[in-house]
């Protein structure tokens, strides 16, 4: 019976050190734990708002310039959230369009929703962010033809190395539709590893500085 009590005391002592110790290792661990908690809560709220995951993506190319630019952080919602997904051809009569302030490569006005989809349903490559032009095929068997505003031809006239010819985008391949974007912020997730390492180093240096100042005061 004594051994479990001793173990419990050691655990309580470790928890107290983690919560209250000024040692750099424990201070850094607390900071990292808070960051993980905040990021987790933000991710949960984003999922509740968007209804899909990932709820944010970064633009990695110039295929949608100038309506979307490399480094934009795009907020994504489920295809049927806040209205049904609309194609370019289907929006001609209403004039509806997202991210359509500027014309496309050929100087034509653009309409409809911009979708985020997995090319050919493959998870091993990054999703593509392009405009849904039209639905190809019948209602139950077909897919979306997609086209980047700054590209010379639709996606389905080209391919990707390791995947091959791109097929019309089936509904199951659609991650969601682009809702709004924040310029430049997308560079952070594009370099998330480097950014995380930099933040941890800065936190550690900051803790060392604070401890050094406290020792000088004493």
The N- and C-terminal alpha carbons lie at a distance of 43 Å
What percent of the residues sit in helical stretches (DSSP H or I)? 25-40%
Tell me the Rg in angstroms. Answer: 24 Å
| Helix and strand composition category | alpha+beta
| Shape type | elongated
Structural features, described:
The chain has 218 residues and is α+β, with helices and mostly antiparallel strands. It has four helices and eight strands. Strands 1-2-8-3-4-5 form a six-stranded antiparallel β-sheet. A two-stranded antiparallel sheet has the order 6-7. A hairpin with a 4-residue loop joins strand 4 and strand 5 (142-147).
Characteristics of this structure?
alpha+beta, six-stranded antiparallel sheet, two-stranded antiparallel ribbon
Could you provide a short overview of the structure?
The protein has 218 residues and is of the alpha+beta class.
Layout of helices and strands:
Elements: H1 2-20, H2 24-50, E1 56-58, E2 73-77, E3 114-117, E4 128-137, E5 142-147, E6 159-160, E7 164-165, E8 174-182, H3 187-190, H4 192-217
Antiparallel strand pairs: 1-2, 2-8, 3-4, 3-8, 4-5, 6-7
Helix pairs in contact: 1-2, 2-4
């Amino acid at each position: 019976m004594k051994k479990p009590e001793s173990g419990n005391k050691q655990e309580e002592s470790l928890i107290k050190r983690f919560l209250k110790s000024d040692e750099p290792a424990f201070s850094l661990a607390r900071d990292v734990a808070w960051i993980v908690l905040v990021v987790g809560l933000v991710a949960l709220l984003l999922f509740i708002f968007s209804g899909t995951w990932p709820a944010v993506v970064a633009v990695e190319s110039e295929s949608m310039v100038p309506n979307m630019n490399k480094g934009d952080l795009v907020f994504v919602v489920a295809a049927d959230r806040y209205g049904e997904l609309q194609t370019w051809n289907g929006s001609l009569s209403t004039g509806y369009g997202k991210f359509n302030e500027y014309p496309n490569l050929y100087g034509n006005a653009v309409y409809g929703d911009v979708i985020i989809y997995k090319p050919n349903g493959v998870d091993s490559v990054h999703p593509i962010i392009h405009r849904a032009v039209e639905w190809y095929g019948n209602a139950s068997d077909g897919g979306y033809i997609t086209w980047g505003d700054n590209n010379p031809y639709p996606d389905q006239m080209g391919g990707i190395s390791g995947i091959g010819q791109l097929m019309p985008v089936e509904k199951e391949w659609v991650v969601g539709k682009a809702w709004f974007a924040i310029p430049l912020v997308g560079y952070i997730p594009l370099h998330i590893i480097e950014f995380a390492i930099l933040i941890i180093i800065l936190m550690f240096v900051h803790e060392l500085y604070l401890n050094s100042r406290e020792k000088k005061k004493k």
